[in-house]
Amino acid sequence: MKLRTVLLRSALALAIAALAVQPKPTFAASHREAPITALDHKADITDWYAYVSPENGEKVILIMNVDPLLEPSNGPNYFPFDPNVLYEMKIDNTFDGIEDIVFQFRFQSHIAQPNVFTGFVGGLFNIPPITSLSGPGAAGLSEFQTYSVQMLGKGHNEDLGVGQTLIAVPTNVGPRTMPNYAALRQQGIYTLSNGIRVFAGTVADPFFIDLGAFFDSLNFRMQAGSGVLPQNIEMDDHNNYAPNSVAGFNVNTIVLEIPTQLLTQDGQMHPATDARAVIGTWATTSRRRRPVLGEETEAGGWAQIQRMGNPLINEGVIGTGFKDRFSMDAPVNDAQFANFFLNPLVPQILASVGLPVPPAPRTDLLPLVQYAAPICPGCTAAQAGPVADLLRLNTGIPPTPITQLKRLGFIAGDIAGFPNGRRPQDDVLDIALRALEGILVDPKKFGTPLGDGVNVSSSPLTQMFPFLGAAYDGRNSVHEGPGQAGCNTLVNQTCPTN
Amino acid sequence: MKTLTVLLMAGIAFAATPAETAIESAKVQIVKQPDFALNYNALATAYVMRAEETADSRYYAKAEESLERCFKLAPDLYEGKKTEVLIQLGRHQYTQALKSATKLNKRTPDDVAVYGYLVDADVALGNYKDAVTAAQWMLDLRPENIPGLSHAAMLRELHGNLAGALDLMLMAYGSMPLAATFDRASILTRIAHLHVVMGDVPKAEKSAKEALDVFPDYYAALAELARVRVVEKQYGEAAALLTKLCIAVPRGEYMYLRAEALELSGQIDEAKKAFAEFERKALAETALEDNSSHELVAYYVDHALEPGKALAIAQREVERRKDVFTLDSYAWALAANGQYDAANAQMKAMQIPTKDPRIAAHAAFIAEHLQPVKGQEAGSR
Fold first, then answer.
1. Pairing relation of β-strands A250-259 and A278-288?
2. How many angstroms separate the CA atoms of B153 and B159, rounded?
3. Which long-range contacts does A319-324 make (Cβ < 8 Å, 24+ apart)?
4. Helices (H), A107-218
5. Torsions phi, psi for A73 (to 5 deg)
6. CB–CB of A25 and B193 under 8 A?
7. What does R_g of chain A's alpha carbons equal in angstroms?
């Protein structure tokens, strides 16, 4: 009785006003909208490479390429990194699929000449050509980006570029604006603390693939064997027999050269037979998270947009309804995608056209997603770790000299190549197709030479840091397509249309 | 000129709603392609939309009927399974909805809409931690998407961050397409509600009226406007609005609000009649999942003075779900029966720091009536 008399009059209006605080999911407005397709090119990781440096076997090269298919002439602002994206390179050296060392990159944009109509100008209006990233010779560099490199580890958080201004190398606008682009880009190589070197900027995309044929339901070119390479193409590590869809396009890159000791669990170099020589690597991009709860500040954290370990996993293995979740989740949670790894669709497709493939479950593919031989011959069963899409690198395996390098990497006996890490020269499409076909089970039975006929990068890869070719020139560069130049050994050097 | 105005008004009055348009369109498609399962799913979805537009649960039966035909043609159709969850949510079958949505989420973890279903079911069942996780995935997978923003806003509100909830709702509203009249009205109503709870009555009124302009006679907006009138102490007007609402949408929750408003406005006989009507309806619904049990408990405690009945109803409801409103309702019934310690335990079982004024008032009252622990009593002296 008391309850009513005390509360009724004072609480009644309050109760009425407050009643609807209770959410009514039945009539929420939000069930039916289609998901918004957020194509986030700036945060799109095109490729991730990790390999022992061909310049110095005691160093590891990590390369993260982002922002795909940049048309070199696409001014006036060209291709800045996104200052709102956190770019990260991650290393697991304890076999648990969780990062132990992280390199973080953040970019900042600057406008030096707000009234100039284009971001880059030179040899015009008394503005000298751009010959320098800063100071004299940089007057025409109206837009430029600086960046920071942070190394995080157990109890370790270091700004590697302290005391330096790190400038991202702009794209190659053209010969009038940037008459000596090679020299300009050379200025973008910085030596950081701990003997680390870094390069960030626009480069020629080193990737090579007949994308059109691949995504047209594996409709590979007849002249390149329709997907099964003839002997001459199979053995050729230097020429293309089908159009490289990526040729003539630029990409943004971050290249890091790190002493191996900084990456291993005990700070030492180890022989290939020692498990401690093996690291798991991957790259991520993230944007500031809008937290459901809590404040929208730095503490709110980051929402991962994409990750990449092994190439072509998300594109070729993960199901359509899982791709975003895969991109945004951590490798340590990859057990949820184990079915895609152990019973991938591509071998089923290959089997449907009469090619022999091993039956599922495909445990032969586990070395791609666990620490095991042949990449980690020293790993025990206990060190296999969880199923996790990491690009695993045995730092104890010395680099192959460029002249002896095989495009098919590990499966061609060049054990410094993919899937032991990945180099820009590795023909990952052909290797991946063969791995999925079952070459690791039995190279004779399941060794049909599958491939797209694109065997080599169209951009001139260099033998020195940062290893990737200079950005294509915005004024004069062309692409390679069906019926166009690019296939040097064919008639008129023209790539096939069929 | 006058004729033109009349014609224009008639045009507005008879303009089809988004759901009505969708229903007609789906029916035409079914005639054209009677063997195409997705057409029947489109019709089922349109009926669910219509149920949301009208609060008339009979449309769910129509949706089910159409979905049955869809599944005859394609038994495992993913889009159909999603509609099935929508119907379960609409019917307040939250446990089943959670189970179904979890299955769908495993089947297609990239589908933002399914995370929304998980949030709705988890919130209704009181699984707030899981709801927050699912809502965070919505925002992470598709930053700034409208369902993600509105679900996150709901959770912020439940967790007591009213300003943060309002931010997200305004952002969601800013992204709404003009043609989505019902969805716009729905978000405007939620904005109005947040303004009410935050004490900004003029803005609440403005938003509620805008909602009614966008989607005339929208029941939730009418209810919100009535709440504004109550806060303004214009009880008669509130009662009039709620009377109009209850004729169109005779839901228990609105009938209870109307009865209270009538009582506040001094229309005691009308209020008694309204409470009796409400009680009859609410009692008939207690076995159903879509019921007015929270209001019925409040009625028995605050108006009918029948705490035993209140406790029986509250106990049954708390066995079904453990959300803060159900826990509050149970605690209030326990308190009405003099079981203050047990009531306090229910209040403490709430996992989230909600700022709901009614819950806060109940909690304060219960705390006041707790028997002091002996040691503490001595210490306090």
1. unpaired
2. 10
3. A319/A345, A320/B110, A321/B107, A321/B108, A321/B109, A321/B110, A321/B111, A322/B108, A322/B109, A322/B110, A323/B110, A324/B109, A324/B110, A324/B141
4. 181-186, 211-215
5. -90, 5
6. no
7. 26
Interchain CB contact of A29 with B (< 8 Å) = yes
Residue A292 to residue B135, Cβ atoms within 8 A: yes
- Looking at beta carbons, which residues of chain A come within 8 Å of B137? 325
Tens digits of residue pLDDT in A1-48: 344 433 433 344 444 444 433 434 333 322 222 222 235 888 899 999
From A4, A13, A322, residue closest to B305, measured CB to CB: A4
Of the given ranges (A201-210, A481-490, B73-82, B162-171), which has the lowest mean pLDDT?
A481-490
**Interface probe, candidates B50, B129, B140, chain A, greatest A C-beta count within 10 A:** B140
Which one, of B227, B290, B371, B346, lies nearest residue B93 by Cα? B290
A227 backbone φψ class: left, alpha, beta (φ>0; ψ -120 to 50): left
How far is it, in rounded angstroms, from Cα B240 to Cα B264?
12
Q: Does B198 touch chain A (CB under 8 A)?
A: no
Angle at Cα A145 formed by Cα A141 and Cα A149, nearest 5°? Answer: 145
Please give the Cα distance from A273 to A373 (Å, whole number): 10
Q: How far apart are the C-alpha atoms of A184 and A54, rounded to whole Å?
A: 23
Contact yes or no for A293 and B253 at CB 8 A: no
CB contact under 8 A, B358 and A7: no
- Whether residue A328 and residue B141 make contact (CB cut-off 8 A), yes or no, is yes
Are B305 and A287 a contacting pair at CB < 8 A? no
Phi/psi at A164 (5° precision) = -125, 155
Give the nearest partner residue to A322 out of B52, B109, B135, using CB atoms. Answer: B109
Q: Under an 8 A CB cutoff, do B156 and A293 touch?
A: yes
Asked if A303 is an interface residue toward chain B (Cβ–Cβ < 8 A), one would say: yes
Q: What is the pLDDT of residues B241-292, one digit of tens each?
A: 999 999 999 999 999 999 999 999 999 999 999 999 999 999 999 999 999 9
The 10 Å Cβ neighbour count of residue A259 is 17
Tens digit of pLDDT for each residue in A161-174?
A: 999 999 999 999 99
Q: What is the interface size between A and B, counted as CB pairs within 8 Å?
A: 193
DSSP secondary structure of B27-91: HHHHHH-TT-HHHHHHHHHHHHHHHHHH--THHHHHHHHHHHHHHHH-TT-HHHHHHHHHHHHHT
B76: Cα within 13 Å, side-chain hemisphere: 3
Dist. CA A151–CA A302, nearest whole Å: 17
Instruction: Note whether A25 contacts B142, CB cutoff 8 Å.
Output: no
- Per the structure block, which two tokens stand in for B135? 């809502």
A494 token code pair? 């023209």
Strand bridging mode A45-52 / A85-92: unpaired
Output the six-digit token pair for A444: 């004779």
Residues B164 and B157: their CA atoms lie apart, in Å, by 8
- Spatial CA neighbour of A23 closest among B154, B234, B261: B154
**Is A1 touching B (CB cutoff 8 A)?**
yes
- A323 CB neighbours in chain B (<8 A) are 110
- Asked if A338 reaches chain B (Cβ–Cβ under 8 Å), the answer is no
Distance CA B206, CA B192 (A): 8
Quickly list H helices, A366-493: 366-369, 428-437
Residues of B in contact with A85 (CB under 8 A): none
Per-residue model confidence (pLDDT) at position B113: 94
d(CA A217, CA B70): 30
DSSP line for B347-377: HHT--S----HHHHHHHHHHHHTSPPPHHHH
Q: What is the mean pLDDT of chain A?
A: 89
Closest residue, chain B, to A302 (C-alpha):
B140
Residue with the two structure tokens 């009418």: B222
Upper half-sphere CA count for residue B112 (Cβ side, 13 Å) = 26
- Asked casually if ipTM beats, i.e. exceeds, 0.90, the reply is no
